[in-house]
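Quick one: structure for this chain?
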Amino acid sequence: MYVRNEPPWFAFLIHPRDLDDLRRWKGSRLLRQYSDSDEEFVAKATTMEANVSGEVLFGFGSARGELIGVMRMPHQVMGPGGRSAVAEAVAFAVDRGAKVIGLGALTAPATAAGKGVVRHIPSGVALTTGNGYTAAVSRHNVVTAVDSLGLNRPAHVAVLGATGSVGVPASHLLVREGFDVTVIGRNLGRVRATLGDLDGEAAFADSLDPLQKADVVLVLTSETAALLRPPDVRPGTIIVDVTQPQNISAATEAEFAEHGVRVLPGGLVHIDRYRSTYDFALPIPGAAFACLAETYLRAREGLREHSVGAPRPEVALHMEQIAGRHGVRPAPLDVTSPLKGGRR
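Got it. Here's what it folds into:
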């Protein structure tokens, strides 16, 4: 793609989520032509340095963001060398002149929600995970799902991945909504240490067992041990999957539909006049990630403080207010179509 000389308002880090994603990458066609197999293609592509992989535009105004590609597959982002690859991409974004840098997909957990790379950020440049606004949008998604069920009692909401940087503020916001909340993490001790202020207001768990009682499951982790299967939830449950890469892939979603479980894509928003030159292949046409939207909003508002680690619930609510001022809103969820398989 043509790379502009003028600095962007912001930069947003992305990485290929799967092989199809990598095939959509700018310049991948030539690599595929000179590769004898998918394995060779991936091996070549993942030796590339950070690059400008696309841009996001907002009408005909000057607001512009660059998508900085971290050329690593998910297991590489989360494995040895992943943090350094993200740090190199952050440095590249700084060199490009971005004043706000957002961490997309697994670049946030790979860097301890940004805390592992923030010390390398020069003065005047802000780093954000975008997880404050993502938590607010996730809360909105859950409320929409609960309302569609028409329950005559408080809904039981399970948060899977509750100790993460989206899970902590989202769990607090859902408790404030009055739901019967169960927060789930890998280790019960860590759940209590991270969310101890919810003791007495939410149930704590370190297994998938509570999902059998949940009306709505908010999924915030795609770790291997937390990948869901249809038997993990009861028929009639609604799953809101916010993860990237997705916990529940489009290929397995039909199995959930056959089990009577609706899977909804969470954490997505509409931004007025938004256009991306990179195809994220999102299930909702014209949608964007909430974490990308927060990066844009911080640039538009001129916010220059870092937002790393788990944001406080008040930060999530503040970002929600800012979003309302700038034409950013949660993408509507289809909670009424018959279950046919395939992401709705």
